[in-house]
Amino acid sequence: MSITKGRSVTISDVARTAGVSRAAVSKVIRNAYGVSPAMRERVEAAIGELGYRPSVAARALRGSSYRLGLEIPHVSARFMTQIMEGAKQAVAGTPYQLVLAPAHGPEYDTLESLADGLVDGIIAISPLVDPAWLEDLGRRIPVVMLGRHDHPTGYDTVVGDDIGGTRAIMTHLFELGHRRIAHLTEPEAVTRPGCGTPHAVRLETYRTVMTEAGLADLIQVARREDVPDLARAATAELLASPEPPTAIVAGHDDIAMGVLAEIAATGRHGEIAVTGYDNTDLAAHPLIDLTSVDQQGMEMGAQAATMLLERLQGRTEPRRYRATATLRIRGSSVRSPG
Amino acid sequence: MSITKGRSVTISDVARTAGVSRAAVSKVIRNAYGVSPAMRERVEAAIGELGYRPSVAARALRGSSYRLGLEIPHVSARFMTQIMEGAKQAVAGTPYQLVLAPAHGPEYDTLESLADGLVDGIIAISPLVDPAWLEDLGRRIPVVMLGRHDHPTGYDTVVGDDIGGTRAIMTHLFELGHRRIAHLTEPEAVTRPGCGTPHAVRLETYRTVMTEAGLADLIQVARREDVPDLARAATAELLASPEPPTAIVAGHDDIAMGVLAEIAATGRHGEIAVTGYDNTDLAAHPLIDLTSVDQQGMEMGAQAATMLLERLQGRTEPRRYRATATLRIRGSSVRSPG
DNA sequence: ATGAAAGCGCTAACAT
DNA sequence: ATGTTAGCGCTTTCAT
Fold first, then answer.
1. What percentage of chain A reaches a pLDDT higher than 70?
2. Residue-wise pLDDT tens digits, B6-44
3. A30, burial (CB in 10 Å: exposed 0-12, middle 13-18, buried 19+)
4. Is A116 an 8 Å CB contact of chain B?
5. What is the pLDDT of residue B188?
6. What is the secondary structure of A231-247 as a DSSP string?
7. A99, A147, A285, B267: most buried by Cβ count inside 10 Å?
8. Are B100 and A97 a contacting pair at CB < 8 A?
9. C-alpha angle B186-B191-B192 in degrees, rounded to nearest 5
10. Is residue B140 within 8 Å of residue A4, measured between CB atoms?
11. Is the pLDDT of residue B1 over 60?
12. Pairwise CA distance, residues B91 & B310, whole Å
């Protein structure tokens, strides 16, 4: 908290003040081997007196920046805030600082710009980037990817149980008597069959389960950009169809909010079952009361950060963490009228 | 998108491949003066061929990192997402990259760590840091502060119209017949009279308006940490008091959500007027339908970023931007039963 | 218009 | 245990 005046103070200033070499100062600030208590004390005194703070740029150029980067596709998505919060907690208490990089447009750019020496390691949520490209990135810098169902060799993954979670939802809806169940999810780009994104897996699972239940001809899928109004519009369309669904399974809670909005706006609140995914704090709100799948977003973020720290400590074999999915049943999943 | 193999490629590699000096390459990538079209072409070809990306660390050490830092106290606060979104938009299309730094504990650390050479400029939302300290920070690096009502000389400010917004709310509630109006806001630390934070100003305004209306003895203020459950608990206490309020003015929408939750959970939805602040996307949701003040969060974030870019371009005299506040009346502000 | 050379502040051998 | 030295990759005078 000391107030620095004028030009910034460097390691040389500290060394001069303490009457030691710059290398000595460097060792002290890094807690490196071979520093006598006496020297440590003098150096620390000088650091305090001068208000010295090491330059990240200089450190990064030579070794590490002590910064961890978390790339996030949508800063406003409720699920992202869980991830950020979890990662923040996990990094607290380590010598590392977490920095978030909101992606604007293609994630390649954001990831590259993180890899350009700003951070020592990267956590990313980029369902669409090419696995080969990621393997290459992982060769240059430690990487942990969230929400990828592939099995990479050069980076770690943290993933939810999208099959289990979706199955739990469907079973629950069947038990409530629903047959005409529609699925509203993200755009084609992130839900293309086999592309391995969480939403693609949820969609596949929905289809599989419907087919298993002999309801293949009732499968109804709508894909929309994740904007509240578009989810509402899609819901309106679904409900206007000749045989409208009695239940709508939303890809995640934010989409579900749009679904609920449209249903409420047309005065039909409570008439159509709605489910979300991610169990964001909104879901538990009495006025929303949304049935959702808890996939432990905070825990996922925390695990990702922890795994990244492990890699920074030297681990090289890939690890994978799969979060559990637990259905939280609430009022939005009403019984089928039929 | 080219795939780099092995060791990272440096400016020297580019220079060698293009058959020019490193200085020449540097000039090309910075669009600096004195490069012949021919040379530019050869250099750019080499850059493309090699997939060269300048090291941020090296650039930062010598000049600028082309990174802008946005410090955020609470990543999950809905208002923050507006700010982030706005800043992101404003920075897009410039040569700068936005990085977010979530504060963990005292904001001084986060701000320092940003100033340690990671970024060329800082946008911060830190109501509590000492103005003198900020002035000093502003001397070392361009700074734009959000939500400070002071008039600094060494940095810019972006602030809302907290007086106008709060007055609008109060007037509205008076018109609905309310007299017993309580205010639920953030903890003492950020609402201490005269400390100049947005919430302190809103609180002061609330008190002033109540007093002006001759209702000084009905003033009722509750302060709570911004956690959903605590807002609920505070609401429960307010409603359990001998003369419970007929309206609750929440410091911002997230708090209002807690208030609404408690009221709904006790089956009294629609019986007590509730207002928020920030007009977050939730407020417009039919199931929430929360009267709130729109203070253009996105615009504030965008303005902050723009002002920071101006400073980077050389402006030194301080600027201030004050956003307008517009009351959005919705269903939650019910008429007083009295 | 182009290149040579001197650092920016730090870390990591390698001496001593 | 401590100090010396040589860069990390880039930008920036200053020559040419």
1. 98
2. 468 999 999 999 999 999 999 999 988 888 999 999 999
3. middle
4. yes
5. 95
6. HHHHHHHHHHSSS--SE
7. A99
8. no
9. 145
10. yes
11. no
12. 12
Q: Is the CB of B1 inside 8 Å of chain A's CB atoms?
A: yes
- A67-160+297-323 and A162-296: identical CATH topology: yes
Q: Half-sphere exposure of A212 toward its Cβ, with a 13 Å CA cutoff?
A: 10
Cβ–Cβ < 8 Å for A101, B56: no
The CA–CA distances, whole Å, from B217 to A48, B121, B182, B335 equal: 51, 47, 11, 21
List of B residues 38-77 with CB within 7 A of strand C:
38-39, 58, 61-62
Q: What is the pLDDT of residue A107?
A: 85
Across the interface, whether the CB atoms of B67 and A118 are under 8 A apart is answered: yes
pLDDT score for B7: 63
Q: How far apart are CA A111 and CA A124, in angstroms?
A: 8
Nearest CA to A177 out of A120, A233, A215 is that of A215
User: Strand locations in A6-111, DSSP E?
Assistant: 67-72, 97-102
Least confident of A30-34, A157-161, B148-152, B245-249: A30-34
Domain extent listing, chain B: 11-62, 67-160+297-323, 162-296
Substitution target in B91, B99, B108 with the highest count of A β-carbons within 10 Å is B99
* Domain B162-296 top-level CATH class: alpha beta
Residue A180's pLDDT is what?
98
Q: Which of A47, A280, A285, A290 to mutate to test the interface with B (most CBs of B within 10 A)?
A: A285
Q: Work out the number of other CB atoms within 10 angstroms of the CB of residue A145.
A: 26
Mean pLDDT over each residue of chain B, to the nearest integer: 94
pLDDT of residue A7: 62
Residues of B in contact with A282 (CB under 8 A): 282
CATH ID of A67-160+297-323, from 3.40.250.10, 3.80.30.20, 3.30.70.260, 3.40.50.2300: 3.40.50.2300
Nucleotides of D under 7 A from a protein CB: 1-5, 7-13
CA B100, B102, B107: angle at the middle one, nearest 5? 115
β pairing state of B326-328 and B292-294: antiparallel
Contact B56 A53 (CB under 8 A): no
Output B190-198 pairs: Cβ under 8 A, ≥24 positions apart. Answer: B190/B127, B190/B128, B191/B223, B191/B251, B195/B127, B195/B128, B196/B127, B196/B148, B196/B149, B196/B150, B197/B127, B197/B128, B197/B147, B197/B148, B197/B149, B198/B127, B198/B147, B198/B149, B198/B159, B198/B160, B198/B162
Strand partners of residue A327: A293
First and final CA of chain A: distance in angstroms? 67
Q: How far apart are CA B193 and CA A211, in angstroms?
A: 64
Cβ(A167)–Cβ(A209) under 8 Å? yes
pLDDT tens digits, residue range A197-252? 999 999 999 999 999 999 999 999 999 998 889 999 999 999 999 999 999 999 99
Per-chain mean pLDDT for chain A? 94
Among A120-129, A256-265, B164-173, the minimum mean pLDDT is found in: A120-129
**What number is the average pLDDT over the span B120-147?**
94
Integer Cα distance of B71 and B143 in angstroms: 11
What is the distance between the alpha carbons of residues A74 and A100, in angstroms, rounded to a whole number?
Answer: 11
> B292 forms bridges with which residues in the sheet?
B328
Q: Which CATH entry fits the domain spanning A11-62: 2.30.30.100, 1.10.260.40, 1.10.1740.10, 3.30.300.130?
A: 1.10.260.40
Please state whether strand D lies within 7 Å of residue A33 at its CB atom: yes
Q: Is residue A37 over pLDDT 70?
A: yes
What's the whole-number mean pLDDT along residues A172-191?
97
Is residue B127 a contact partner of residue B147, using CB atoms and an 8 Å limit? Answer: yes
Would you state the structure tokens that stand for residue A196, as one six-digit string? Answer: 């391995």
